[in-house]
Structure formats: C-alpha cells, structure tokens
Sequence to fold (1138 residues):
Amino acid sequence: MAGVLGNCLKNLIRLAQELKQSIDKIPQNRRNAHKLSENLITDLIDIETFYRARSHVIEATPELEEALTGLLKQTQAVQTRCEQFLITTEQRGWRKMGAAMKAWRECDQVERELGELKDSVHQCYRKFTMIAISRLEQPINQISLTTTTPDGTALQLNESQNVMLGHMESFLTTLQTPGSTAGTPIFIQPPKEVVDALYLHQQVEAISNSLAELSATQTFAREEPNEQYLQPFKTVISNGRLKSSEDVHRDVVAKTLEIIKLLKGDSADLSIQDGAWEMVNLAIRLYDLEMYSDAEAMGRWTVTMFRALVATNQDIYEPYLALALRNLSRYKGQINDDEGSTAAVAESLEIQRCLVQKNPTLEVRSQLSNTLNEYWSIITQKGDNEKGLEIAQESVAITDSIRAEIAVWNEWLETPPSGPPPPYIEPAYVQVDDVKHSDDPAQPHPASLDENETIWLDYNTARALCCLAYSYQDNGRINEAYETQLKSLALYQNLHRIHGGNFEENVASSCAHLCSQGLREGRDNAKSIDYAERALEIYRRQVDYHPVKVSPWLTESLWDYADLLHNEGRKDDVIRVTQEALEIVRKSNQNRKLLADALHTSSGKLRRLEQKETAVVLRMEAVDIYRTLAIRDPPSSESALPPADVVPRHTVPDSLMDLANDFLLIDKEADAVVHCQEAVDIFRTNLRKAPDDSSAHLDLARGLSYLCYCMFRIKEYDVAVKLGNESITIYRQQFRALGKEFKAIESYVSALRRATLSSFYAISLHAISVNAAVIEDLQMLIVDHKDKVGKTLFHAFYDRDFLLGKHGRVRESLRVHEQVIGLFTSFPITDPGIAADYISAHDSYAGNLQDLGRPVDAVRACEKAIDLGNRFEDDEVTKELACALAGARATYSGLLYNLGRYIEAEEVMKCSVKASRENMTPAEDTLLACRLRTYANVRRRLDCIDEALKLNEEAVMICRNSTSKGVFVEARLPYNLDSHAASMLELEDHQKALTTIQEAMELYRKLRDGDYNPMVPWHYCEPIYAEALNIFANCLMATGDLNGAYRALTEAETLYRDIVADRPGLFADQVVCLDLLVINTRALGFHAEAKRISDDLAERLRAMEMFNSEVALLAYTALDELRSRPSQVRLRASFGNQ
Fold:
C-alpha cells in the first residue's frame, strides 16, 4: 500500500486546481468563492508537505486512506456543480439572462459547499497530525528502530537509549494526544545523523559494559610496558584538513570496533595498555563529534585503566594518567559536572607538578602549561578573576622559559663554544652526533625540536597568552589584554599558515576577541571590522562541520560585527547581519530551553543596537518559552537522563525582570510594572517553598529592588519607598547572616540607591526614616567596600539633605552636610570624580550655612571648594568636575553679591557661566538659566542694564524651550521671569515689567495651590515666591496700583515671619519687604501703620546686630542696594519719601 496516500493527495490537489479554474470562469463569481478555492489548494499542499516529511510514520494507515477518499469525492461533487454553472452561462439571449439569475441565486449554496469542503480539509489535516504524533508518542520502551547500521546489523534501542533519542534534536514531541495505542511497536526511519549517533552510542555503551563486566570478573594483567610506553612521553597534535562530521564518525566507528574486538579476546587476564591509549583518542574524537556524555564515559574508563597501570609502574604511566584526567575534566565540564571537572583537573595538576620536579622535560613542562590553561577555564567560569590571572601568568611563564632556554641553546650551538654549555632542558635521549661543537660525549644536550614539538610549544604559548589576555580584561587591564591577544593571534596565524587544519578555529577566536566590545573601545573601528570579518569567514565555513560548537561563536561574532557596523552608520548592513544572527539562533537551537536562552541573549544585543522594539519581541518569546517549561512537573529522580529543557527556579522571574527593563527603554512603564510584579510574585513563591535558602531571599530582594525602580518610573514614589525598604531589609538580614559569604554587594548597593532615590520624591515622612536606614547600611558596607559604596553614600546624604529641607528641618540638614564632608576625608581627593562630589558637598554646605545665618562660614566653604578645583590641571578637568566647580562659583558669587562685593561677584559669575555653557548637558539647561539670572542681577547692580536684560531674556527663553525633567525645573521659569521684570523696571518699561511679573506670580500660585508636586516642594519655593512678591509690589507701585502693592507686600511679610524663623540667613529679604511696605503705606496715607512698621524694622535690625552681626551686615547691605536702585530712587521721589 506504499505511496497510496501520496497519489491520493496529488489527485486531490489537481482536482482542487480544476475547481478553482471553474470558479474563475463564472461571470457571477464572487470574491468569497474565489478566496475559498485558493485557500483550499493551499491547505491541500500543506497536507502533502506534512505527508512527505512524515511518510515513514503515517503511510499504510487505513484511517487516513479512508479520510482522503471521502475528501476526494466531496471535492469532485463541488467541482461538478461549478462546471454546470459554466455550461449554463454559455447560453445566449433571454436564456443566458435566466441562467445568470439562477447562478446568482445558487451562488450562496456553492460558497457554503466550498466552506464545508475547506472544513473537511482541516479535519483531514488534523487526522494526519494526530496519527503522526500518536505514533511517536508511544511509551518509550515500546519504540524500536528498523534500519541498517554501518556494520550491517539491525539497531535495537533499549529504554535509556530511547531517552537519549528523545533529547537528540527534539525527535520525540512532548505533546500529549488522545488515540495512542499502547503496546504496539512502531517502525520508524529517523534521520541518518540520528541513526549514526545512536549506533555510535551503542558501541560506546558496549565498550563500557564490557569493561565493567571484565573489571568485575577479571583482574588486569600485571604487564611490562611495551615499546610505545618505553619511549619518552609525547603527545601528538593533529593538523590537516577540516573533516566533515561523516568522516570523523567513520573514523570513530572503526576505532570503537577495534576496541570491542580487543575486549572480546579469550585471554584470562586482560592486557589494557594497548587499548587504554586508543580509548584516550576515542574520547577525543567523540568530543569532536559533540557527543559529550559518551566522551565522558570513555574518559572515566581511561582514568580507571591508567590508575591500574600506574599501580604497576608509576614512572612510566603517570604522565598518561595526568593527561587522561585533564581530558576528563574537559568532558565533565561539557555535561555541567562542575565539581567533577574541577576535581579531575586539580588531580592532573598535582601529578604534573610532581613530574616537573622529578624530570623537567620540555614535554612535561608543556603539558603542565596545557593543564594550567584548562584549570584557568574552570576557575574563571566560577568568577575568580584574580586567581585566574595568577594561573594564566604561571602558564605563560612556563612557555616563555622554555622558549628562552631553546633560544640560548640555539645561540650556543651556532657559535664556537667559549665555556660550558647552558643547563639542559631535555634529558639525553638524543644522539651526541646530532649536536655540534661537543667535546664531551657524556654531556646531555637538547635535540632540535621536531615538527610536533614545535607545534605543541607554539600552540601552548598561544593558548596561554589567550588565557592571559582574557584575565587581563577581567581585571580591568584592557591595553595589556589587547596587546597580549595580538601576540596570541600572531602565533595562531603562523601555525595556520604552516600547518593549516584545526588552527583556523583558534585564529577565528583570537580575531573575535580583538573585535569584542570589551577590547575594541577607543580603537580603530575599521581595524575591528577587519578582525570581525576574518572571524566570520572562518566560523561560517566551520559551522557546517561542528554546528553545536561553532554556532554560538558565529552568533556572538555576528552581534559584534553588527555593533561595529552600527558605529559606522551602516543601517542596512546592521539589519542584514542581525537577521543572519537570528536565523542561526533559531536554526541551531532546536531544544526549547536553548532557544529561549539564545533569544534572551539576542534581545540584549538588539537593545544595544537600538533595535529596542525587536528586542522586546524576542524577549517576550523567550519568556513565554520559559513559562511553559517552568510549569512542567520536575524530572523524576529515577530518570536516566534529566530533561534538557528543565529551567532553574529563578529563570522565569529573571527573564521577566529583563523584559521589564526592555519595556522601560521604550517608555512602556505600565507594562514594565506588570512583568516586574509577576517576577516578584514568583520570587515570593520560591521563598515560601525554600525559606532557609539564602539565594531565595536574595532573589526576592533583587526583584523588590527593581520593582521599586519601576514604581519610581511611573511616579508612585511612596509605593516605591515601601518596596525599596522591604528590599534593603532583606539584604541587611542576609548580609549579617552570611558575613563574608555574602556575594551580592553590587545588588545590595543598587537597592539602597533605588530606595533613597524614591525617598527623594516621596510625600510621606516615612521617606526620611527609609533614607536614614539606607545611610546606616551604607556606612556599614563602606568599611570593606569603599570603592563600591562611596559615591552611593554621598548621594544618600545629598538626598537626606533634600528630604530634610523639603520638610523644613534645615538645621538637621546642616549636620548631614558636615557628615558628608567628613566622609571625604577617607577618600583620595586627587581623583576628579571624587573631587567633583567633594566640591558639590561644600557647595550645598555653603547654601545651608547661608540660610542659617553664617555667611562668613559659607564664603569659606565655597573658597575651599573652588581652591580644590583649581588644583587640577586643564587636561585633568572632567565635565563632571567642571560642572561642580561652576556650581560652587555660582554660589560664591551670590554670597559676594549679598556682602556688597559686586566687582568680585561679577568676575566669579562670569567664570561660572562660561564653564556651565561649555560643560552642561541639555538636561541641565534650566540650571544654566538660573546662573544667567544671577549674572544678570550682578550686571544690573553695576548699571549694565541692557546686558542684564539680554541675559534675562536668554534665561527665560531656555526655560520656556526646555524639555528636561527634574527637581525645581517647573519653578525655574517663574524664578527667571521675576528677575526679567526687575531689569525692565530699571529701564522704566513698567507695563512690560508688570506683565512679566504677573505671569511669574500665576505660575508660582499654580505650584502652591495645585496638587502636591514632588518635583517642586513648596517649602523650597516659598522664599523665592516671597522675593517675587517684593518685585511684584514694585511693579504695581510703579504703575500706580498702591492697593495691589500693599496686598502683595502684606502677603510677603507674613511669609517671611515663618521663613526667617526657620532660616535666619534670609533676614535681609524680610528687611527689604518691610522697607517697601513702609513706603507703600505712607503713599496710601496710612501714616500710623507706616510708623509702626518703620519702628519694627529698626528694632529688628538692632536685635539682629546683637544676635548675629553677620546677618545684620547683610541686611544693611541689602537696604543700601535697594534704596540706591534708579527705579527706587524715582519711586521714592514721586512719593516724597526719598
């Protein structure tokens, strides 16, 4: 019955095509019928495609044959009806018209029949898929394969091998379907590569079983070393053309059959020294075929056999045992047996160090270098970068010493001897005749290195240099890493040029490292592109031979290449390369977990390439896969091989947090909150299941910290503070419980930073206590982690200053600044970044001192900050330092202005504005506007009114056009408008001045009367609002509105009572207000009230002289400045109060 279904499907497709042609010829044809006929053909072609791919499973199925026969009859019936329509429409005259009307009436019936036919096709397709799946879904121990294997025998799979089959290329689907018939063997023909791998696996298992049986029933013979082992220990490095997987497979099969034949010998005692070395090579070939579990199985037996041989003759066999242990370590690493991998390589190192002490031959020392390189891989994967650097340096030192000794010998051999020969590096197993200039035949000499030894030395040197390059990079020594990798590349290129073969993979890896993001920063982009293209050329050629191994390298190189093209602005090429990378990701990761991992990584790469929307799509796909894998039942402890797609408990929530981050990058904060909240819920569930697991506690703390940040982004500041507090509480508990075992310092500090940032904007007073807890934790951490904590602690203190000031607790704020400045005594101020923070701390400290009535101390604080900044040379000044210094100079200029030192204030402010223009970012534009305002005030006091007006106009324009967000931004426009109005007053443009100040007052009142705005705390706005009321009153009096001016001044005077009680340094502003109120009340004819206010002003000044002479001096200076303004002189003259 073979091929019956295929022929039936061909007939169905042909009939469906004829049906479509008939429908196309009907004039009354409607678009719906046409569409249905097209879809019908498409669906039938899909069934045929499905059949061709799975004919070995579903052929000879009566149920399917019956379904297709019924479908064929139904299609013929619809096609016959359409042909009848075609006949009737060929009639002429009235008959043609009648036929057309009949066709129109019956067209609905045709469409219904087409729809029913399409449904039948879908049902047939479903039967095909269900039967195919059910036949693959039999219990594993019921599946058997009938196929011819390379030795001509039938391949039968036992249960464990069927499990393996299920993992190879996802051969068995995991979908459960009804209708499976248990107990019946199903005969299927899997792909050739699967059969080859399974066959080879059977042979490896046969070897293992034979060895296990023999070792249990027989003893290994105590044998004398044969000729191979009597030669000096030497390994051979393979080189030559790159073999296909089929060629390698054929070689490996031949080797396994040889070993099996050896194991089936009739000897009572098994001789193993011949087979042991063959099995070493067999394990290497299995590793090359990416059959890592089988390689590990053979590796274990090689170690067992060489241990037995070492017991008989340690000196001969110990180097081989060390080699077998090193190889076993590599195999165990590939199957994620980290503990076994570490133990094996550590034992190998111990043996080889002893061998070097006994007999430091070139081969033994070279082998030690090779093992150190393997050990380096394990240690660096565990994150111990410092130890990794030590190991890499030791390995390089060994190869360098060998090369240096060879160079000395070569020099001695090429020149007449003038003394004794250098110390030998190789025991005398060469003929004396091979050595020139030798007068002592008993003296051991080194032989010239043969080709294999030269290859090994160059290869080990290159590999050691490559490890050292990565270690330099991991320890932040980037330039050394780059130069070291160049040396490694030069050696690999020379090996590849002379010997070809396997070395091109090493050339590619070196090129890939040189163009990687970690090494290419600050280097020629074109050179990096050249390295990337060379790596890609090799990887693209190799991926067909070793897809599992090479695909990740190729993908990573493609991402680096896309990054480099992005730097060049080659957008079309970037899209092409990223598409190639994604195709490889999907093609090479048939296992769902590996696919999800690859999509997860690819999303991060696309995000860096600014393809953020695509990154989100990939991340969502990865998250969906992780979710489906996570809801499965955990694997049985009795299963032979645990599922390859089991995900750790933290994978789903971690991927959700990454997805939340992706959403934040495209400004979809609400989506970010939803996914981050889901991650936190999973972390909480995990913690309930494992309450004693510290990692579960830390996972929850990390999730809460990021959810805190997400809430911060949607401006739910109080919720963010609560989450941040919960997060740092967990971190604190774990830090104290784990002590030195606590490894999450960076995450802890990040959580502290997010918590204090949220408290910065929160409404609740609880934010102050949370900030206090943050500072306490940071002070606890700074003892041992100064480099990671210092800047965060500074920001936390700064946030506390803001919080206390926001809630009117200015004196506490001053103590905070004193703590901050004390903090910097333990830091080297020679660093520009730390110096910038130190200057900013003194700047804020000066502002607090000024508010509390200590102007002289404030001036000293500013001078100290400016002096520190001036110590740096021009080429040492960073933008951060320049901005901090500009801020300190702006504050210093304001203090000098208040003290009446206007010329000095003008010089300092000029420098501040210049530095601000050159170094500030667009996000800081409104801060520049405020400095322009201060500069305008100084220029106006020096009678440069026109220049002051231009500065005011520029400042107002900056604020109006600004799109920046941050603290005080909304208050800076009215703040600059009131200064602009003051400049207009001096130019006697009273009406424009009044219009400008009215706009400022309206903006101030919106801030005051509207809902609470955490970006602009009103406590900070009150003083500048009161100052604006003074300017408003001046404008009103200049335009004759004395009553309006009285109301403004009365409001200002009421505000100043509370302001000055809290911040006595603002007493001078209160004095100005009272002096204006005296003038106003006199002009209104309220002479008694004017005298009362005047007497009150005089009494306040006298009291201030007694209480704080510095503040009194500021008040007198402010009065002199006010009364000497041209606008005030004119105003007072008009009222008769000059």
